Amino acid sequence: MPCVRRRPLQSHAHRRSLARGIVPKRRRSAASQQWRPRMDLVSAATEVRARAYAPYSRFQVGAALLGASGAVHVGCNVENAAYPEGTCAEAGAIAAMIAAGETRIAAVAVIADSPRPVPPCGGCRQKLAEFADPDTPVTLATMAGARLETTVGALLPGAFRPDDMPDT
């Protein structure tokens, strides 16, 4: 008697989504989640960098933040004809994180097409220090593949932090 292979049981909705070409994402094992988030952050920053609005400097920057919930929040730089009124990629990603209801950063990635990894400006370093611990990892990357691993505390030693404010 020939061996008959049976298809695994799938819900009607699952079969319908497959018929429409929607393929469900596979869940990663807990072990793979240990090492992939930083790599995924750089990929997310690279993807959003392509959407930067930088008609004046032509210097596109992308940033991705890993929130404490595990969600990734991205931002890109947005320039303005009134040049100092632009928004940095890091500030855009922080705004997206806050808009999504998160207030803690677990990891940061910033990417630009530059000869060396470019750190955030002073204002963005202070903004990162507001929502991240000093030991929060930061990956600075270039489009050519150069990487620099640092921390929020190393980028802004002695930062003025929320716990420095008096209780009111």
Automatic annotation (TrEMBL):
Please list the residue ranges that the record marks as compositionally biased, kind Basic residues.
Answer: 1-29
| Top-rank lineage group of the source organism | Bacteria
Q: Which residues form the active site?
A: 90 (proton donor)
- Annotated stretches, region: Disordered: 1-34
* Cellular component, GO, one term: cytosol
The UniProt record lists the CMP/dCMP-type deaminase domain at 36-163
Q: What is its EC number?
A: 3.5.4.5
Could you cite one Gene Ontology molecular function of this protein? zinc ion binding
Q: Which cofactor does it need?
A: Zn(2+)
Protein family membership: Belongs to the cytidine and deoxycytidylate deaminase family.
List the protein's name: Cytidine deaminase
Q: Which organism is it from?
A: Meridianimarinicoccus roseus
